[in-house]
Amino acid sequence: MQAQTTAAAAAETGSSVLRLQQQGITRKLKPVSNGEKGFTEIPTLDVSAMYSDRLADRVKLANAVRDAATRVGFMQINNHGISQQIIDDAFAEAEKFFQLPAEEKEKLHQNKNKDFQGYEPLYYTNVGGLKRGDCKESFSYGYDPAYDANGDGKMPSILQRHNQWPDESVAPKYKSTMIRYQQALLALARQFIRIFALALYLPEDYFDNKLGHPIAGVRVLHYPPMEGSDDEEIGLGAHTDIECFTIINQTYTDYPALEVLNADGEWIKLFAEPGCFVVNLGDMMMRMTNDAFLSTVHRVINRGDSERYSIPFFFGINADELIGTLPSCITEDNPQKYDPVTIFDHSRKRLFAARPNHPLSKTLVNTLPKKYIVQNGVPVYPEEQ
Ligand SMILES: O=C(O)CCC(=O)C(=O)O
Ligand SMILES: [Fe+2]
Question: What does the pLDDT look like over 65-104, one tens digit per residue?
Fold first, then answer.
């Protein structure tokens, strides 16, 4: 199957480039006829070795991660060390939250929040550019240094995402459960990025001093069962993620809802495996690695009769770190392609582009900080100058 031809994801027949117009992303698709097939399966990795004392175990895992990152950009991981209780509690609270009366959820509407946190109703975003928008509702919250015992407390206020939470009288355990979930995933991500460092032939602690106030955004998602053709009704349109990597937890549905685009333009279905998280790489990782690690296009369509819930956790290094291409990813054959950038600049444009209805999207130019200046390798924003 070729990639869907929609306004935003146009894989023109005969063309070898997929354009996600709203996101400014292009991906090369190989002509199917060249004989070299793209991936047809998403690898599953046992990641328990990330907690092993033996370097050899960790290197072995890093080799498997490198293979998945360079060929697919997606993997499922098991034995990740997160307790089933934390996961079950998060899904139970998610379900209860989305069952709240519409007016309670609307009180937390993202339009009221300059940091894109809070509630998005059905069809609010239009990531794939389809006429009706995305058939999902969501609740987003960001990193809050108050809940990170391992943070550096050096977070410039411009980076802080101010969260909105439902009142305790309507959702008594929602906030505490979701913060606990975020803390568990943050600990996992800080551990897992060490394996990514090894996979990139870097010292294991290469990223450690860039994680004091990391991006650790959570989006709780509800996709009702949907009908209609793939061009009419979609849960979340074709897109790539923005940050370094995403760790997704999903409820089981008979019909695999998450689909990943391979280089032949085929949507490969990801079958949820019990006890697994999905990990996929984002554009920032692809950029840092000079395109060696792939940030792969994906989408969600919830066919069948089940409600689907998923909780992606978006992870990135400190948003004010100016990141150039990683030294191990520049070679004579693959010279540096990208200028250094901060995740702040990289991600803000993308968030606005996907939310044309957000009041701030219309005044994008005014709300962006003036260009930062770089002092001692650290970008400095206007309020601190
Ligand atoms: O619902 C899912 O499984 C994936 C969600 C996703 O891709 C995203 O929020 O970026
Ligand atoms: Fe995604």
Answer: 999 999 999 999 999 999 999 999 999 999 999 999 999 9
Contact 312 CB / ligand 1 (< 6 Å): yes
Domain spans in the chain, listed from the N-terminal domain onward: 38-380
Please tell me the pTM assigned to this model: 0.88
DSSP string, 213-243: S-EEEEEEEEE----S-TTT--SEEEE---S
- The answer to whether 345 and 361 are in contact (CB under 8 A) is no
| Residue 64 beta carbon below 6 angstroms from any ligand 1 atom | no
The rounded distance, in Å, linking the Cα atoms of 3 and 1 is 7
Tokens 């499922």: give the residue.
Answer: 76
Q: What is the largest CA-CA distance in the chain?
A: 61
CB neighbour list of residue 72: distance below 8 Å, 6 or more residues apart? 39, 42, 43, 260, 294, 296
Query: Residue 218: CB within 6 Å of ligand 1?
Result: no
Under CATH, which architecture does the 38-380 domain have?
Sandwich (2.60)
Q: Which residues surround ligand 2, an ion (CB under 5 A)?
A: 241
271/289 Cα distance (integer angstroms): 28
> Which of 173-181's residues contact partners 24+ apart within 8 Å by CB, and which partners?
173/93, 174/93, 174/96, 174/97, 177/89, 177/90, 177/92, 177/93, 178/90, 178/93, 178/141, 178/218, 178/220, 179/144, 179/147, 180/86, 180/89, 180/90, 181/86, 181/87, 181/89, 181/90, 181/218, 181/311
Residue 274 identity (one-letter amino acid): P
Q: Whose C-alpha lies nearest to ligand 1, atom 9?
A: 312
